[in-house]
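User: Teach me something about this protein's shape.
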Amino acid sequence: MIKIQTYGQSGTEGRTEGFVPNGYVEMIEDGEKQIKLFPEDFRMDQPKIGSKFPSFAFVDINGDSITSEILEGKIALLNFTFVGCSGCKMEQFTLEKITKMYAERDDIVFINFINSADWRIKWYLNRFGEKGYISVPIDEETYKQYFHIVTAPTHMFLADGIIKENISAPLWSENSYQFVVNFIESIDSKTQL
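Assistant: First, the predicted structure itself:
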């Protein structure tokens, strides 16, 4: 049995409890305590908060072209996953709820960069349903070497192509749902983008 307790360190003030971007995780497995940095250790090489998200040009699973121009003037929620990721499956309900809530807003875009083959993504979506994101298959080299993603799920929150937040953890709880809603609501696309 694994029991996990999270703790914040300096620099986490104002952050939603449950996300520990600069904290650590105490894991107790079979009576043994282990302490590991999480998820900051996973984010060290990722694009930094406040930087422009790297440019891209891909084709989504429907065969439509998608480029980084889609981020211009928009609030964007980017999700990095792969088929078979248990944390990614765990957060699906929360992400569906969020995309449904903002379905009528054309100033918000949801993109899922998926490190899996096109056919596997289609199989997964047919079996478990879509969460309302544009599904974009990317290869492992792009996933790890270009975007510097080493764990899934990872989420990046952007305004006009600038990274405002990034979380390497499943967004499955009511706290995480509220965090995303608060993030979106805090950005007035007419004045802050």
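Now, about its shape. Confidence is low (pLDDT under 50) at residues 1-25. The radius of gyration is 17 Å. If you'd like, I can walk through any region in more detail.
User: That's plenty for now, thanks!
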